[in-house]
Design a protein that fits this description.
The complex is a heterodimer of chains A (about 325) and B (about 725).
Chain A lengths: L7 H5 L1 E2 L2 E5 L1 H20 L2 H27 E7 L3 E2 L3 E10 L6 E8 L8 E2 L2 E6 L4 E9 L4 E3 L4 E5 L6 E6 L6 E4 L12 E2 L4 H4 L2 E2 L3 E7 L11 H7 L3 E6 L4 E7 L7 H18 L4 E7 L2 E7 L1 H14 L6
Parallel strand pairs in A: 4-13, 18-19
Antiparallel strand pairs in A: 1-2, 2-12, 3-5, 5-9, 6-8, 6-11, 7-9, 10-13, 11-12, 14-18, 15-17, 16-17, 19-20
Chain B lengths: L6 H22 L6 H16 L8 H25 L2 H18 L4 H21 L4 H29 L1 H13 L1 H25 L25 E2 L12 E7 L8 E11 L1 E3 L2 E3 L8 E3 L5 E3 L8 E2 L7 E2 L11 E8 L9 E2 L1 E8 L2 H4 L3 E4 L5 E4 L5 E8 L5 H7 L9 H4 L7 H10 L6 H13 L2 E2 L7 H4 L4 H9 L1 E2 L1 H14 L4 E13 L4 E5 L3 E8 L5 E4 L17 H19 L3 H10 L15 H25 L4 H15 L10 H11 L1 H19 L5 H22 L1
Helix pairs in contact in B: 1-5, 1-6, 2-4, 3-4, 4-5, 5-6, 6-7, 6-8, 12-16, 13-16, 20-23, 21-22, 22-23
The chains are: A alpha+beta (about 325), B alpha+beta (about 725).
Amino acid sequence: MARRKPSLLRRALTARGRSLEITRAGWLFILLTLAVGFAAINSGANLLHAIFGAQMALIVGSGILSESMVRRTVARRVANGEIYAGQAAAVRVELTNLDPRVDVFSVSVEDDDRAATDDACAPVFAVRIGAGSMVVAPATVTLSRRGRHPMPAAVVATRFPFGLFVKRRELPRGEPLLVYPRIAPVATPPAEQPRTEQGDAARRRARAGEFFALREYRDGDDLRRIHWPAVARLGRAVVREYESDGDRQLVLELPRGTTGEAGFEQAVEHCASVAVAALGRDALAVGLRYGGELLVPPGVGDEQRRRVLGALAVVGDAAR
Amino acid sequence: MIGVDAPLLRFRDRMSLAQIAVATAMVAIADGIAPWTLALAAALSAWAFLRPLPPVMSKSTERAWTLVVGLALVATLFRAFSTAELLDSGLDFLLLLVVQRLFNRQRAREHMQLLLLGTLLVVAGAVINAGLNYPVLFAVYLLVAAMTLLLNHLVAEGERLGPRTAVTLSREGMLARGFLWRAAGQVAVIAAVGAIVTFVAFPRWGVGAFLRGGLARDTKSGFSSTVELGEFGRIKSDATVVMRIEPDQRGAWGPRTDWHLRGSSFDAYASGRWFHDRDVETTISAGPGGYQALRDLRGGLQLRGGRRALPELVAVPGFAASTDMLLATVTLEDIGVDVLFVPSEPMAVRMAPRGVIEGTARVRGGKSDEIRIDKPPGPIRYQFVSRIGTPTEVELEAVGDPTVPPAFAAYTAPILGLSDEVSALAHRLTTGAVSRRAKVEAIMTHLGGFAYTLDLQPSARVLAGADPLEGFLFDTQAGHCEYFASAAVVLLRQLGVPARLVNGYYGAHYNTVGEYYAVRQADAHSWIEVHFGRLGWVTFDPTPPGGRTFGDDAQWWPGASEWIDAVRNSYLEWVVDYDLGKQLTLFENLGLRDRQADTGLARWRWLLYVAGGLAVVIVVAVRLRQWRSVRVQPEAAIWRTVTRRLARRGFVVAAAESPRSFAARITATNAAVGRAFAEFAEAYEARRFGPTAGLADLSALRAAAAGVLAALASARR
């Protein structure tokens, strides 16, 4: 991932995933402290020495306090549901204070401003996290591209106590998330045809209707459809398929293309939009064919929607 | 942005106002701001605070304020350069900026500016406020400013992170108020500790690269170059301690003294006003013992002694007590005067340095044996040598009626503008008196029959335009010290006796807590000096004894007053006057500095300190560089720590050996350690190679590592 080049000072104050930045108010405060220090040294005035000392203590104390806030805070971002490219999806941000004795104040989880990306996660802020406890805050994440991507680069940051300095610690990016293609409203599915007997895959399947066949268990299948006697006999997970009353199907055709190419991406998004619209209608089985190869056999229901979108999320040749 | 009436914003507003109020008080208590300016600023601030705050400042308002501030800046610069009132004009300008910010305080940025303005006021207060109130207010300011900064920081975060966060933050911020107060208190304590440590330990260099100037304030009435008759009456009930005197021989003067601490002196009177007519200033030059000595009429010194030895008084023939001397150190509060107070006949003074800048206070001669200085702001300390002895009546009588030297003509000049009745009275009172002592005695006896009062009622004669002294002498025959002293000088002048009016303080009472003599504002007094030829100027006090306060105790709670004043004196000595000398003394007392450090080889010890400090800096820099150059994942660091500890016990991980096989190898030797390491290895692999490198796994890894170390410790036992 590309990164914006931060300032020289910020680079100098960055190491091992931690960074320190001086805010504009911080610069003003430092300048004022230096001026008071100069006046104190120049004049020998005792009370100016005391003020200078207090200001220096505030600067040093600010650094120590902000460091301890960041060090004690553990943050985790968990996606709550499906994620579509370019659309805000719900995430849960868990902020945990590891210290069993001392509270944590004023910490935020926000995007790393050095990351040059369109991906973004809404910031969350906790005024106080009690000793040894956790605060859960809702947020949203927007990932711009389909595929498998980690969460946007983020930091645990604090300006505590006075907003003079920003202390940041990078968050681990975590497990990649599956980002479905962008969905646009589509009025009517463009192609519908009566369902014909075309082998196992061509039949519309549902939980209702006549028993059709057994097939291998696939990720996302309803556990209630597992045929346990057959599992015991065959030694592998199989599920029952039924002939539904529905009699129409739609197999989406996606020509081969390269991931990231504008035209191909548009086609993927169109396919995804049609699939979602078509699967919303009764008695219409939807499948996906990529470059002539049947990628997802036709089917209905929510699981089928996830299968189609999942396939569309990662489909495409790698760019050379 | 959340609405301007959100609870957190209102709370932040109140705290902003509070911090500015405390900072302003630190300056205002020291008379740093004119009362009308303060009242105007307070009224405008109240208006700004109470009016509904618009969500955004309009462009026209912005332009109007820019114009006002620009004009005020020009006026401030003009005032600073034309009248040298640098601090006064600067403070007025600061107050204007405060008002401007209070009117436009919508964003966190403006509140941060208010905090910076508050800090500038606190700094200004440090320059002009030497009162005991300053550290108290400073402590309050630290707490209030810390809380304001905390709240403003939260609001700024809300502004930065967007409206959704701002709303949540406002609600949670209000819920966490108690915790925020506690955090602010902790931060204030950190700042206070920093202030104290820096105050005590930071070397007092006093470079003096840019000397401050134009800070001196108006001279207080009563001790300026002209005095209106009756000004002292107003301060006779003021119990404020203005001066503390520590004689070299403590306690040798009893609980109360009758010193006449002379300050200003006048030789001319007209229309109820005393002033200087004789244009000759006292000559002051280097004397023995590092003192600056006053020279007499012939330019001679009344002191003798070496440069380092204590000075001694030169004996005056026919004046047995002429060598009775008082050496003392005086702490004079900043009462707005540029004159030093010395009892009886001042011989020499020496300014006690108050840091480098304060040490530059220059002693200069005044009129009529006054000692005036170019005074820096704040209290000053000085030492004096004075002839405390007084001639006996016999010695005075022996002088006769000496010829007045031409240089003293101004002291014998009759007072003009008075009726002939005054002259007639003077001659009638002294009929038959030949010697100067007899003439003075006759006048004193006559005035001794008058009544002392502060309640002055002008007589019909005075209302008709006569001089107030005539009303005192012929009508009311009642008044306070200035009237008695003025009348005595006027009458003596009619007889050709050289006399002058002296203003100062009379008497002092011993503070047993602080072990010094305290002089209060109420002890302000007027008396006269009469010249007796070779005996010099002799003090006479025509005021009846009942009218002299004589170093009375405070009217209310005298015991508590003594304690408070002793604390105040210690504050002046150990805080305001804390200098390099006191710093070194403190370090010696704490055992942090060798008294013999400046002798022998120890003199080069500082080289060792410098070399040691340099070595520490280099080591820290190298370690920091190494630390920064290696990016170590936390699990790798934990792995390294654990394997190092195991290696110390003989369990060395082989090259290319997996954690699990290493665990098995350990188990073969020590089952407990092996089991613990197996758990650790599992956690390590989960963290290092697992699908989710969650931070929760890190906690598990740390716990497992602690288990290995505990097992190792058990195995050792």
